[in-house]
Amino acid sequence: MSYVFGPVPSRRLGLSLGVDLIPPKTCTYDCLYCQVGRTTSRTIKAAPFVPAREVIAEIEKKIAKSKPDAVTLAGSGEPTLYSEFDQIINGVKEITETRVVLLTNGSLFWREEIRRRALNADVIMPTLTSAFENTFRKIHRPHPKLDLGMIVNGLKTLRQEYKGQLFLEVVLVAGINDSEEEVEGLKVLAGRISPDKIQLNTVVRPPADSTAIPLDRRRLEDIRIFFGDKAEIVAGDPVTGKGKNKDSLAGGLLDMIRRRPLKPVDISNTLALSMEEVEDLVRGLLIKGYIRKQEYSGEIYYISNQRSAVS
Ligand code: SF4
Description:
By secondary structure, the protein is of the alpha/beta class. Helices cover 36% and strands 19% of the residues. It has two domains: 4-244, Aldolase class I (TIM Barrel, Alpha-Beta Barrel), CATH 3.20.20; 249-306, Orthogonal Bundle (Arc Repressor Mutant, subunit A). Helix 2 (85-95) links the parallel strand 5 (70-73) and strand 6 (99-103). The longest helix has 14 residues, at 52-65. The two termini are 19 Å apart. The site of iron/sulfur cluster has 11 residues, from loops.
């Protein structure tokens, strides 16, 4: 079984080696904008889903072949639901100086043991979408035992205890959390959590629910200015990678697309292929029915027909 995918180009992390620690699709949320479809197991119970030693051995092999900018704990859902994710962080730090990133929805930091497990990550990237309970519930369709107050308190406590970098991702969905009131509430809340950066994102890949609509660039820009110096827009920029995965291009590409939809330019950057070569490669996979093409927000994405994948 393979626990590691990529490296894949990431808008925020450069070339990111993904680590998939969670059975598809297990999450504390069932977000409208999720790029990997509806949650099938909505839970807040952490479990040792995969053998930590095998995961670390696989990461070590992959790092030797490709030099990623980051090793990213993502998973087919929420990675903090893996009860041994601290062992993965610590194990990776023993074998490489590559920064270890925890990409999380941030919903479980109210638990002391989850905060403790995350402390050695170099970067933690939690998500926040609203200062209002109703909006939070509408966007994330969370597990019934979760509420916004406990999650925000968890993030504030994490900030006090955690010495690494905290990048707060604010995902904006048109018509749901982009009103003046919502944006003002988010700014106040983000100020209380006090992250190192505020990363503004929107629905950039085909979402689980078609009611999730992206914000246009101008509105995102207005919101960035309103949020101030710490804010940056991470939605929509072409991603760049170094392209090292030369063996089994089709297999490697399928592996990546299974985790998240990719644009032709992402594939080109990651695999160091010309756009013509990308077209040739995906044509074979399209004909065999492994992937399909979908237009979203004026861009073409390739999507797996064998869903599995990430946060
Ligand atoms: S976007 Fe992330 S947090 Fe939301 S349902 Fe998908 S995997 Fe879970």
